[in-house]
Amino acid sequence: MALCLALSSANTQSLAVESKRVLLLHSFGPDVKPWSDYARAIRAELNRQSLWPLDVREHSLVTARSADENPEVPFVQYLRALFSRDQPDLIISIGAPAAAFVQRHRQDLFPAAPMVLTVVDQTRVQYSALTDKDSVVAVAIDYLRAFENILQVLPDTKSVVVVTGSSPVEKYWKAEIGRQVAPLASRITLTGTDDLSFEDILKRASALPPHTAIFWELMVVDAAGVSHEEGTALAKLYSVATAPIFTYTDAFFGREVVGGPHVPVLESGRRTAEVAIRILGGEKAGDIKVPPVGMGAPKYDWRQLQRWEISEARLPPDSEIHFRDPSAWDRYQWEIIAIVTAFLIQASLILGLLYERQRRQKAEHEAHLRMAELAHMNRQAVAAGMSAAIAHELNQPLGAILNNTETAEILLKSDNPNLAEVRSILTEIRSDDWRASEIIRRLRSLISKNAAEFKLLDLNDVVRDAVGITSIQARMHGIEIHQNLATRRLPVFGDAIQLQQVVVNLALNGIDAVKDQPKTRKDIVVQATSGDDRTIELSISDSGPGIDPSKIAGIFEPFFTTKSAGMGMGLAIAQMIIESHGGKIWAENRPTGGAVFRFRLETARQH
Prior knowledge:
Rossmann fold; 5 domains; 5-stranded parallel β-sheet; 17 helices; alpha/beta
């Protein structure tokens, strides 16, 4: 237990020895820009880089606000009293006034303590007064480059108002700006504000002529003796200014300033902290040489570019643009990607579906053409199968015409021709001729190859023509076809030839079913009815043996046939035609024997 306490005490003493005291000396105060920003950056870097606990104490050289150095003596005595027991391990001065102060009073303050002079322009460092305990992290302000930037982004600029206060350091920088910018004297005129109160500066800024710019240097103390801290003066100036504002350090960048090349605060803070850590670690301050922190790449406030209508095309090639309003892409990148992806997928699916639809339509069109060809071949086959019956049917009227013609010639050659009988013969010739013509017309319409023509039809007329054709075949086999048609029109919308083909096919199937039956009476009944105002139904029934119940379900399949010489396409073609007309066709057996085929079509609206 005693050993643990001893070790703990030793560790505590070791930590106390290793703790480092740092005096941070401000030129004007901890809240005066731009030095306050540099101080924050230095403290942050010290805490990040330090290997030891740090005791950082900050004090301000408020005497820098005037040219009177007399109050410095009591301030020196004050600092000595504060650090009388534990002198600082390092002194960091921020700004030129603080650097000049510690150099003037080194021997009276802490002659053994190393110092880092930082945030001081290289032209303000008294290098001849440096000792081996001093290190410098200077900045290099290039005012000529800053003003050339103004002329690059605003080439019509004729005048620049340089805003400074009336403290010694501000008067110095007003003069230094005039000296460095002298090469541009033929292009721009410089106007100072060190002899004005800040209220008068605001009045002037609110009524500046066109082609004027404002260069913000410093505003510590105005001509009325009023002090200004933490950038409040710049914010007030911006609220009334009628010209764009430029500056030399990014400590002022972020709201009021257009932009340009700037001395970077963070880089200066990082270098200062690095030097400080090396000195605290044992290196001699005078041996540490650090190049000045120069002005970095130009950076601009996008909001100010928009306000003053400055084109991005005028900016230097290596420029950075900050505070740009995020575009829809920046705000909703993943949402847009998801939407576009979904749209592309959907578009691809739609294109695929359209392509498939086009292929299907083409295939359906080709299928319809093939089926039309097949239907035409079926009609030709029907006509060929009926050729003997048709020839026999035509021979009767043609033979009668020939006999009547010969009889009429004999009568006309007589001395006293019987004209009444001649007229009767001519009437019979006309009747036989019409009968032959009607047979040919119906046959021609059946085997025609015209394109389908859908129009308003009376299904009664279609049935009469079809029965007229099939009656020829029926009579050869002693079969009688009965027509039970409606007494009123049965309007349907369709192609007359195709519907006629359906009736012919079904009727011929009925003829084939009953022609070999050992019956004295062989009948086929064709019946057309209108069940309601919406549908019309046609049935063709026969007195044959009926349909095998095990085969009735596939009777309309292509190539299904019960005939030894049949192709099995008649019923398939009939189904195709009826379905293309929006109808339905089916077959069933009659309870009293025989088969019945039915199809149903929608009733056409008559206008």
